[in-house]
Structure of E3 ubiquitin-protein ligase:
Amino acid sequence: MAEGEKSLDGLELGKEWLEAADSRAEMFRYLKEQVPQIFCLKKESSPQEEDELMQSRLFFPLECFLFGEDPQEGLEKLKQGNTSSQLCGRVFKEGETVYSCRDCAIDPTCVLCMDCFQDSVHKGHRYKMHASSGGGFCDCGDVEAWKIGPCCSKHDPGTATAMVTDECGLEPEIYGRSERLFRILLHYVTDFLVWEESLELSAELQPRTKDNAYYCVLYNDEHHSYDHVIYTLQRSVNCDQAEAQTHTALIDKESNSEHISLQPLRVEILHAAVMAHQTFVLRLGPWFQKIISYSVGFRQAFCKVALETNPDAEQPCLISRLMLNDGRMYKGESI
């Protein structure tokens, strides 16, 4: 897809979703066709090609909906008019050096990126530096994170009261769109992360043509031994020992456990379309981090949606659903 075509399609889609009586239904109508095409079904796609398709066909239209215009133009306007510019909000990459002031941080999780630390009063205090595991934020500008010196010289607005009175930093229109988008996507993410084998895709996510492709998903519960997993794989998918060992190493690469369990492994057979949506929701995590780093208003909208409860429903808030199901939640290992 050419750049001009991508921009045109994404902008048109974002506009259609904004004007639709039911934005969620329109988004799902689009996702039910695009997500399976990008993930899991096209084996010949390289990771780079898959990422490019995801950016142009999925994330770009979502950002057009969020900003109500071309995302780059909207982001520039946000930077120029954002009264909360004293908040750094830098998203840390894995291995990036971060700093915490032993004298001033409210707790050890309050950290600064290297640039903000070098331009702050904390450089002359007792401090600790360590490598980030990735995904956290620089707390420069957050008055609730520091006893003194909440801002470096680059993010200092000139008056401490400005940080206290700035509650959002977003125009009402863009805040409203962010809340709508986060509500749609966070429910979508939560539903697929706690997916059960017995569940069927909702009608709004059923693709027009359903391919006869399935995945055997072996969940990493961080308790079973290597030998037990290898034995179970050989019996479940009729593979030889060498192939089972390879799959076991891939499943275990993100974690190691000293606790051995005699409980049965959780294995599920999922349709490729379900796997495609589960793969996409995992990619949405870093995208959420990027978006909410742009403004405290986005972070407030995200938190509001994640913590809101429906008095007419029996289910808890989305964060509670994820925490309560963490032990059985989909985290990306499959064969």
Observations:
- Residues 1-8, 159-166, 256-262 have pLDDT under 50 and may be disordered.
- The longest helix spans residues 172-193.
- Residues 91 and 311 are 34 Å apart (CA to CA).
